[in-house]
Recover the amino acids of this structure.
């Protein structure tokens, strides 16, 4: 990068906040090191950096906590990484309105701690909350098990400020829950992975902290029986906040051995008496459907179990070879998980699979293979074909570059791609924001 451009960046954000050379190593993207890493401290600084990059046609890759940087195709161009960790303020908390406005670099863990002091919480639980930032969660529409009852990041967003590719700052939505004026512009940016703009702050809906929160682990010997159990729960009077299905390999990796060959993980929260009744009713309901073992976790044990499930597939640990996420009809989930595990075994790999059972979102972690790409590529290809044939979709959430070079990260673009491409062209005509990483090379 030209020295003049670096000096301009330093004049915008301060010399200590422009990283070059070896200092860029924590921000490597798909094996490629950026020319520089810029860490602005305000949305005005973000806007100035983006405007400069647009003028010079320098590509920008936004970076929050880095937990989702494995998602996406290798970038077609890599210039600057725009790190948002310095935008870490809680701007405004209105407990009476159950809303909060935060900058994009605030981590979920820090925000929950702040809200908890006022008896409230943001009803999101994606993996790695100590690193995941609000901006990154929104940009990837990340969610966790409690998506079952509370929805995803998209459902909790009220308003957002975004820096567009020309450096302009746009505000969409409002600061109150009942906001129905005009188009719901904020939703456009959720799940766009930074390809349409840089999220710099957001206003979100909150909920009161529940009085009681428990996790029931219901083990089964057969996946078929667990599938029947899930259908029974869905058609009952129970109101779980989370409804997860985990196979034997996932249970082992999460330290939940002894539950059975598979297990349903059911969370209940709310008034203590209600939660106690739901736990007892769950045991009664599943008792006639092949329930092998049941236990209820609370406090530290509950938190440790959820954290272990969320940690499955952390890149660089447990011999992880690849991670694929898919969506199918909930009624197909148990069978899909069994077939996926069998495919992995045939290719000499192991698969630890968990799923948001109520919405049909599965996540499969491949391990083994001794670092060879061929069995991983074969397995991911077979999984995608199986899921697509069932009318579902698949995404390679993480894989080594040698694998990504041989298999598409995203499914083939569908009919909506033409609209997506036109929106990208309108908002980012020079193609500088996260170039080439989104669906269809957008």
């Amino acid at each position: 990068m030209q020295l003049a451009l670096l000096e301009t960046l330093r004049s915008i954000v301060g010399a200590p906040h422009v990283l070059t050379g070896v200092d860029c190593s924590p921000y490597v993207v798909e094996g490629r090191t950026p020319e520089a890493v810029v860490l602005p401290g305000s949305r005005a600084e973000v806007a100035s950096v983006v405007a400069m990059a647009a003028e010079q046609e320098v590509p920008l890759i936004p970076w929050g906590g880095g937990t989702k940087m494995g998602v996406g195709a290798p970038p077609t161009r890599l210039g600057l990484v725009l790190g948002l960790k310095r935008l870490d303020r809680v701007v405004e908390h209105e407990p009476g309105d159950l809303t909060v406005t935060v900058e994009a670099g605030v981590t979920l863990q820090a925000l929950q701690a702040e809200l908890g002091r006022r008896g409230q919480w943001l009803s999101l639980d994606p993996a790695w909350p100590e690193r995941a930032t609000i901006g990154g969660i929104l940009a990837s529409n990340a969610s966790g098990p409690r998506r079952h009852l509370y929805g995803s990041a998209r459902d909790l967003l009220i308003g957002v400020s975004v820096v567009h590719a020309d450096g302009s700052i746009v505000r969409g939505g409002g600061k109150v829950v009942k906001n129905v004026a005009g188009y719901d512009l904020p939703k456009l940016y959720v799940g766009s992975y930074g390809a349409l703009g840089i999220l710099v702050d957001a206003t979100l809906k909150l909920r009161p902290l529940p009085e009681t929160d428990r996790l029931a682990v219901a083990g089964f010997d057969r996946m078929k029986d667990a599938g029947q159990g899930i259908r029974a729960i869905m058609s009952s009077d129970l109101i779980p906040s989370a409804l997860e299905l985990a196979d034997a390999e996932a249970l082992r990796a999460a330290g939940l051995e002894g539950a059975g060959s598979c297990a349903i993980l059911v969370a209940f929260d709310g008034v203590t008496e209600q939660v106690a009744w739901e736990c007892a009713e769950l045991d009664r309901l599943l008792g006639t459907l092949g329930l092998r073992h049941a236990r209820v976790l609370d406090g530290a044990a509950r938190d440790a179990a959820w954290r272990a499930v969320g940690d499955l597939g952390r890149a660089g640990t447990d011999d992880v070879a690849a991670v694929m996420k898919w969506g199918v009809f909930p009624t197909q989930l148990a069978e899909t998980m069994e077939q996926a595990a069998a495919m992995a075994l045939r290719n000499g790999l192991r698969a630890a699979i968990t799923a948001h059972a109520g919405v049909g979102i599965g996540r499969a972690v491949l391990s083994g293979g001794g670092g060879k790409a061929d069995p991983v590529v074969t397995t991911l290809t077979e999984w995608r074909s199986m899921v697509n044939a069932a009318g579902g979709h698949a995404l390679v959430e993480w894989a080594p570059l040698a694998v990504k070079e041989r298999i598409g990260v995203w499914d083939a673009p569908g009919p909506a791609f033409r609209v997506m491409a036109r929106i990208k062209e309108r908002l980012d005509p020079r193609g500088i924001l996260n170039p080439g990483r989104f669906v269809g090379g957008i």
In short: The first strand starts at residue 18 and ends at 19. The longest helix spans residues 373-389. The chain is about 35% helix and 25% strand.
